[in-house]
Design a protein that fits this description.
Layout: H1 6-17, E1 21-24, H2 25-43, E2 53-60, E3 63-70, E4 75-76, H3 77-83, H4 91-96, H5 102-118, E5 136-139, H6 144-158, H7 164-179, H8 183-190, E6 192-196, E7 204-208, H9 215-221, H10 229-234, H11 240-256
Antiparallel strand pairs: 1-5, 2-3, 3-4, 6-7
Region (Disordered): 120-143
Length: 266
């Protein structure tokens, strides 16, 4: 059996974040960090800022969950993407993906936020542990909707027996079941599709249904764009490097759920 690819290792590590059972959070975070850095080294080289992102716990009124977050700013990546809602289409994206529209850019940000949220662990009751959670904690099982969403994402690279229209239908349904059928979510779901794109022709990838651009490529092509004003309004101390890190990790996460590629990302 061939060893997992760089994408496969990152995909497996991310799916374990929300997995059921006793989890050593230090080991879990290390596995994600290593896999991110390995894939980033191949895809981004010296531009990579993924080292600014870690796996950590967020404490909410409804419980404690584990997911990707900025290490020094202490904010979840989905929250940063949420604050970028309705931000202008970056010139870098227009140059790299000239057919992508403003509406599609907003859909990419929304779907990316939902993907990162779906990969988080299920919220569990908070603990009075003086700020020091135990190294090993029992992880509650994913909800049915979250599990179906994760399975639909994983199917892009693991279910070669399914046609792209089947993969698209399952992913759209799972996304809306997980995120709720708000008008924005329904619009974003219709703007994505599973496609075989690239030269040479590649396996299934999560793409924009109209332009055909892969979501991973769109996000990564925004690398280096100024921090959107809407993001700075919400997080005034967020640095350019941290914004780049959010884009890098988001793009690599989307890439991890693509079928194995040719070396060139289209």
């Amino acid at each position: 059996m061939n060893p997992p690819s760089l994408r496969g290792r990152l995909r497996d590590a991310l799916l374990h974040v929300g997995g059921r059972g006793d989890v050593n959070e230090v080991d879990l975070g290390a596995a994600v960090t290593i896999a991110l850095r390995e894939l980033a080294s191949e895809v981004l080289g010296e531009r990579s800022r993924v080292e600014l992102v870690t796996v950590g716990a967020a404490h909410h009124p409804w419980g404690r969950s584990l997911g990707l977050r900025l290490a020094d700013y202490d904010v979840e990546l989905p929250d940063v993407l949420l604050s970028a809602d309705q931000s202008d289409l970056p010139p870098q994206v227009q140059e790299s993906c000239p057919t992508v529209s403003q509406e599609e850019w907003e859909a990419v940000l929304l779907v990316s936020k939902l993907v990162l949220t779906g990969l988080q662990s299920e919220p569990e009751p908070g603990r009075d542990d003086a700020g020091h959670p135990p190294r090993v904690t029992p992880r509650p099982p994913r909800s049915v909707a979250r599990e179906q969403f994760c399975q639909a994402l994983a199917a892009l690279s693991e279910r070669a027996d399914l046609r792209q229209d089947e993969l698209t239908g399952k992913l759209r349904t799972a996304l809306l079941n997980f995120a709720s059928e708000t008008p924005d979510n329904k619009d974003a779901a219709q703007r994505i599709a599973v496609r075989h794109t690239g030269k040479p022709r590649q396996g299934p990838r999560l793409c924009l249904s109209r332009s055909g651009s892969a979501l991973a490529k769109v996000v990564l092509s925004a690398d280096g764009c100024p921090v959107p004003s809407r993001v700075l309004e919400e997080f005034p101390d967020l640095t350019q490097d941290e914004w780049n890190a959010v884009l890098h990790v988001t793009g690599l996460t989307l890439m991890a759920f693509e079928a194995e590629p040719a070396h060139d990302m289209e």
